[in-house]
Write a structure and sequence with these properties.
By secondary structure, this protein is an alpha/beta fold. It is built from 9 helices and 8 strands. Helix 4 links the parallel strand 3 and strand 4.
Length: about 200
Amino acid sequence: MARPSASLMRSVRELGAKAPHLPDLLALSDEARAPHPLATLEGLPAGSGYIFRHYSLARAERMKLAKEAERAARRRGIFFLLAGDFGLATHLRADGMHLPEWQVKRGYAARALERFALVTCAAHSAEALVRAARVGLDAALLSSVFPTQSHPGARALGLLRFAALTEEAALPVYAMGGINGETVRRLCPTKAAGIAGIGFTSG
């Protein structure tokens, strides 16, 4: 993952709907595009958030890597969220959990909210945002806002649709997908609470 540039971070700080209790930036791990959590964490500014996923790893390997990432995040003052695994998140005493959209649909949110101070989720539609707000989640990561390398050829929401969805949403919404130094500036007039992504470039 590329280190977020100073200009990108300045633009993030100008977003119109930032929430004081939430990080401005969330970085997500990815086995293919960001396989080394410690390298990613070294590039993040203090106060950011890091969401550990690495879903495909064997249990023991995932636990070992997650533990290393959690310790590195603590040293650097970065919020550490564990994605999709309540048991591992509890074991590591993570700062929070991130729920895939299917887990919110199946009622996993209540258990996560009982244990963790910060619970976010993935969202890809207006319905998902309504569902996330209804169960009381802290924020949703809405994607894909712009065309992204993660899903080449997939249709993006676009700036106008993203702006409309965040305007209507009853919880903070992070913009995810195709975020770089140029596109983040286009988000400033919207009610984006922050940005999220596997990688960020200067644009």
